[in-house]
Amino acid sequence: MKKILITGAAGFLGSHLCDRFIKEGFHVIGMDNLITGDLENIKHLFPLEQFEFHHHDVTKFVHVSGKLDYILHFASPASPIDYLKIPIKTLKVGSLGTLNLLGLAKEKGAEF
Ligand SMILES: NC(=O)c1ccc[n+]([C@@H]2O[C@H](COP(=O)([O-])OP(=O)(O)OC[C@H]3O[C@@H](n4cnc5c(N)ncnc54)[C@H](O)[C@@H]3O)[C@@H](O)[C@H]2O)c1
Predict the structure, then answer these.
(1) What separation in angstroms does the CA of 5 have from each of 72, 88, 97?
(2) Can you give the C-alpha Rg of the chain in angstroms?
(3) Are 79 and 15 in contact (CB under 8 A)?
(4) How far apart are CA 73 and CA 59, in angstroms?
(5) 3-108 belongs to which CATH class?
(6) Which residue is closest in CA terms to ligand 1's atom 35?
(7) Which residue's CA lies nearest to atom 18 of ligand 1?
(8) Which ligand 1 atom is at minimum distance from the Cα of 93?
(9) CA angle 79, 17, 39 (to 5 degrees)
(10) pTM, full prediction
(11) For residue 106, how many other CB atoms are within 10 A of its CB?
């Protein structure tokens, strides 16, 4: 079974991507620190064996055990209102978050 990490999993795009990849037969790891997201968006996935949720800030070191085939990085505040409220965190998730996830992709040989 292919394994995919989706960051921003509790957000608008990330939650739909989790649904889509579960339907496609992937093992999905959803990662989110819930800064703008909502677990309501993915709570229907929690009972599934093919889904796991990691409450984690991707600007910190990101670890996933075992193999990993793909990473979709959709964690980021998305609205101009949020950018103004949390500008540094917005910059960090696009820079440090991307750097951490690229490092993970390199370590695992995963497609980013
Ligand atoms: N919504 C759109 O129509 C649209 C269109 C084009 C591009 N985008 C881009 O796609 C991305 C996601 O957009 P969205 O609408 O799903 O936003 P969203 O706010 O609904 O989801 C973003 C998710 O990222 C999480 N997040 C933020 N910082 C994090 C961190 N440091 N660690 C872990 N999780 C973190 C939030 O908690 C949230 O659940 C953004 O970069 C946005 O600019 C969105």
Answers:
(1) 6, 24, 13
(2) 13
(3) no
(4) 12
(5) alpha beta
(6) 75
(7) 11
(8) 31
(9) 65
(10) 0.97
(11) 10
Residues 18-45: tens digit of each pLDDT:
999 999 999 999 999 999 999 999 999 9
Whether 3 has a pLDDT exceeding 90, the answer reads: yes
pLDDT value at 60 more than 90: yes
Q: Is the pLDDT of residue 85 over 90?
A: yes
Pairing state between β 3-7 and 27-32: parallel
Place of tokens 């957000």: 11
Q: What is the DSSP string of 36-81?
A: S--GGGTGGGTT-TTEEEEE--TTS-----S---EEEE--S--SHH
Paired tokens of 20: 């889509």
From atom 13 of ligand 1, which residue's Cα is the shortest distance away? 78
